[in-house]
Backbone:
């Protein structure tokens, strides 16, 4: 008899008419939380995979590129980061990278869905390993409410959200970024997940229009992530001052030797966009 093949198919969000298929070994978790359906799979070639509401959030194969760029770009661009807030990021990947910096004094993570945190601790040790660091404080609550109660407390705010549907939709609204601005210290900056230039450029332009007058400097960078739509993902830097397009620190050797994607050269290159995206964004 022919071998039975089991595949997971993700339809690209917002009905873009494309799909990504991943060959799986088994489903290890399926749970309906108060906010979303959480699934975890063991795959044939991509290691363990986290899926929320049918959309791939990470795979063991390529999550490092997303998390390294989201953390090491701002950590090496801000003059002296001491306090960082992660909004979302329940899998722990952002925190794993942040705890590599001994100079960080405070790392807060605010995730609305506590089930994502607990299941990641149990099934995703490769991303959740930093959550036990003594500098890390976990808050299970709505990030939009949290920031309103923490004015001028953070040098960096990293908004590791899923797509702007379901529980993450509020994290793309102007009102949320008004709160983000208020939670930043002078000269601070926020980074947010900002989709792909090939499939979602109109969404990106709408976001720019919504927040342009809140932040003196907006900068968009690209990161290659094969299991995300079009094989890449963007992050928007919303800065109250510093230019994030080039590193201002020498990357510590003990940090650099453990990295697989980020480097100073990749940092600089990420902010050089294709001509069509530069024209459309007008940054």
Residues:
């Amino acid at each position: 008899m022919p071998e039975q093949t089991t595949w997971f198919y993700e339809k690209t969000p917002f009905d873009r008419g494309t799909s990504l298929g991943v060959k799986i070994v088994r489903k290890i978790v399926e749970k309906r939380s108060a906010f979303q359906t959480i699934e975890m799979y063991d795959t044939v070639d991509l290691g363990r995979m986290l899926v929320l509401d049918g959309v791939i959030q990470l795979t063991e194969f390529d999550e490092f590129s997303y998390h390294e760029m989201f953390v090491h770009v701002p950590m090496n661009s801000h003059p002296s980061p001491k306090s960082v807030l992660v909004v979302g990021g329940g899998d722990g990947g952002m925190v794993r990278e942040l705890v590599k910096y001994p100079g960080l004094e405070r790392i807060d993570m605010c995730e609305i869905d506590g089930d994502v945190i607990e299941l990641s601790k149990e099934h995703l040790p490769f991303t959740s390993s930093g959550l036990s660091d003594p500098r890390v404080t976990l808050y299970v609550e709505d990030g939009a409410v949290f920031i309103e109660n923490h004015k001028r407390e953070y040098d960096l705010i990293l908004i590791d959200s899923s797509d702007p549907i379901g529980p993450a939709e509020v994290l793309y609204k102007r009102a949320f970024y008004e709160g983000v601005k208020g939670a930043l210290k002078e000269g601070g900056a926020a980074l947010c997940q900002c989709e792909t230039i090939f499939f979602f450029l109109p969404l990106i332009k709408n976001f720019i229009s919504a927040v342009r007058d809140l932040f003196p400097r907006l900068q968009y960078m690209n990161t290659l992530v094969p299991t995300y739509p079009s094989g890449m993902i963007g992050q928007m830097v919303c800065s109250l001052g510093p230019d994030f397009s080039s590193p201002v620190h020498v990357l510590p050797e003990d940090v650099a030797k453990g990295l697989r994607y980020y480097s100073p050269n990749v940092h600089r290159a990420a902010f050089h966009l294709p001509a069509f995206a530069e024209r459309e964004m007008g940054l």
